Every structure is written in C-alpha cells, then in structure tokens.
Amino acid sequence: MHNKQKQWDEDEARWSGLMQCAQKGDRVAYNTLLTELSSAIEAYIRANFGHIPTLEDCVQECLLAIHAARHTYDQNRLFRPWLFVIVRHKTIDVLRRIRPDEKHASAELPEHVLGSTDMAHLERMIDGKILLAKLKPEQQQAIALTKYAGMTTLEAAKVVGINESALKARLRRSLKTLAQQWQNDWKDDEHKP
Amino acid sequence: MNTNRENLISELSNDLSPVKPLNLKLVTLIWYLSAFGFAIAMMLLVAPFRENIFTQLATSKQFLFESVLGLVAIGFLVYRAIDLSRPSSQATPKALILPLGLLFLWLGMYLYGYIEPALEPSMAGKRPHCSMETVLIALPSMFIGMFIIRKQWPVLPTTSALLIGLAAGAIPQLLMQFGCMYETSHILLYHVLPGLSVGAIAAVLSNKLIQKV
C-alpha cells in the first residue's frame, strides 16, 4: 500500500512537471508525457470497458483532447483529476459517436464471438466490466451488441427483439447512465492510489 | 504501442506551441470590475443614481447588508463559472451550492422586504425602462464571459453559461437598487426577473456559442 502511494505520488509529480514544461513549449517533455499518458489512459479504459473495439480511437481522441486542453491545466491543482475528466468525457463521446466497423471488430474479437448472439459470450468479452456491471441487463446487452460485437443498431434490435428506435433510445440511456456512473465513481479511482 | 498512436504523439509534440494557463483569480477580478464599471457608466448615461444613496447605505444596515451580499454572490458566480470551464474535480453539482446558495440568499433578502423593507418604499429615482436597461446592460458582459469560457475546455458548458449569465444579469440588477426606485414588488418584477432571465438567455445560447467538448 505504501509503495502504491509512493508510486502514485511520483507519477503525479512527474506528470504535473512534464505538463508544466509542455506548457512552456518543451517538445521532448511533451512527447514523454503523452507516451506515458497513452499507456495510462489505455489501461484505465480497458479496466472500465474491457476489450472495447474502439479502444484505440478512445485513446487517440483523449490524446487530441489533452493537446487541445493543455492550457487549462493549473499547476496548483492535481494532475490526475484534470486528466481523467478529459478521458471520461472523450471516451463517452467516442462511444456515442463511433460504431465499431467490421475491421475493428475482426481485429479484436474471435470469429465465433462476432457471430454470437449469446449474452454469455458477449458478457465474457467485457472482461473489465467495472462500469458496465452497474447497468441494467438490457442496457448491458445494448452496449455489448453494438459497441463490442460491432452490430448495427438494426441488427442489435433484431437480436433483442425490439424495434430499432427503441434500441437506439436504450443505447442513449445506457451511455448517459454510464457517463453519470463514471462521474460518480471516478474520484475514488483517481484521488486515491 | 501501435504505429498510429506513435505517429500521433510525434505530430502533437512537433506541433507544440507554448500556452499560457489562465489565472482564474485575475480573470475573475478583471471581468468583475469591468462588468461593474461598464454597468455603472451605462446607467449614468441614462440617468443619475438616487441622490441620497450613500446616506441610505450608511443608515440602513439591512440595505447595506443586502447590497454587500449581492456583491459577494456575484463574485462567487463569476469565479465558479470560469472555474467550471476547465476540466477539474470541481465539475460536480456540489460546486454550485455556494454560488447559487448566496444568490438565492441575496434574492431572499428582497422577498423579506415584503415583511420588513430595507428602505421606506418610494418612487424616488424611478427609471422609465429599468427592466430593459437591466437586460441590455448585462448582455455585453455575458457575451465576454461566454467568450472566456469558450476559450477554455468547458466540461459543463450550459452550467458555466448559466452562471456567467446570472452574474452578468445580477450586476445591473444590483445597481438598479441604487439607480431606480426602491419598492419590493418593483425590485422583484423589474430588476430581479430581467436579471435572472439573462442567466436563461446564456444557458440557451450556450449550445450555439460554447463548443461542447
């Protein structure tokens, strides 16, 4: 626990220092920072969403957002809360916006899972389901089918046995709940080592 | 790490230019003072303040208290509006408790005026278009505030806009108690209501004027 706290403090101080250098225009420091953060962001998203096919999109969108928002980091405040607010917003944004295409899904998921409509298979794909586990089963199903298995909303609607607009509404509600849930939970993750 | 990501990081690093972080307290203070300065100047262009305003502030503790409370509430509203425009752990509903609490406490003082008015109700100093003046004077400050918010990375754009709009509207709303007639119903209807409506205008315009991140 003590080591974890020490590591947490060291990361916090290093990232804060690198960002302050980046704000002054230090490219080497910025490259180091983004490289370290990209791994941290990937781990964070994976821990919350598992092997999401849009993981790489999420990480890259987060990096772009960090770049665009770098002037808003205040050195008198902790770095992690600043970082993870951006990560949280961007990830939910990507989940809302991007439908995983065939290429994405095929690259990440085994073939038997792609064709599967079995919820047990889909749930196993969400191996890091910290957040998803807090959703209602029908909401989990909507997200699993569209965001993990790469189905269109029409295909997912047929699998679930509801019409497409009902599925879209369910998906919207699920993502909204996820965003709220994440907002409630993130402090515990980021403030404590 | 995949090649795409490495390339992106290289591009972003090469594209890096120095940036200056916003000094929250300084920006808040500048907006606050300039918004008050602008509102006072505009009101004086239309008509002078009541002649005995300083005597009234000195003799009525309730009037002085509600005026100071208004000044403080506006300060907290602006500070929080700009603070919320940057990603931080402050971006939660809890952050609104203090500024909105102070605002409603201040406005509650005017409601209390129905029981015990701070000043003897009077038509003295009445301005013919005080409600319109309140809104028009508030708009430039509101837009400047929204511009400041837009330049940051607002996580809660509508909330930030609402707060800056409430602050912008509250400034002429407060000054009208010095420059227009003092009577509880008139204050609530022609000063407070138009002032609050600026908050609603800002919240509605936030979708168009402040990019959602």
What features would you describe in this structure?
The complex is a heterodimer of chains A (193) and B (213). With 193 residues, chain A is mainly α. Chain A is 75% helix and 0% strand. Chain A contains 10 helices and no strands. Chain A starts with a helix and ends with a helix. Chain B has 213 residues and is mostly helical. Helices cover 71% and strands 0% of the residues of chain B. Chain A binds chain B through residues 22-28, 30-31, 34-35, 38-39, 56, 59-60, 63-65, 67-75, 77-78, 81-83, 85-86, 89-90, 93, 183, 187, 190-191, and chain B through 1-2, 4-5, 8-10, 12-22, 24, 85-89, 91-92, 152-153, 155, 213.
Helix and strand arrangement:
The complex is a heterodimer of chains A (193) and B (213).
Chain A: H1 2-23, H2 27-49, H3 55-68, H4 79-97, H5 102-108, H6 111-114, H7 119-125, H8 137-148, H9 153-160, H10 164-191
Chain B: H1 3-14, H2 24-46, H3 53-59, H4 61-83, H5 97-112, H6 130-151, H7 157-179, H8 184-209
Helix pairs in contact in B: 2-4, 2-6, 2-7, 4-5, 4-7, 6-7, 6-8, 7-8
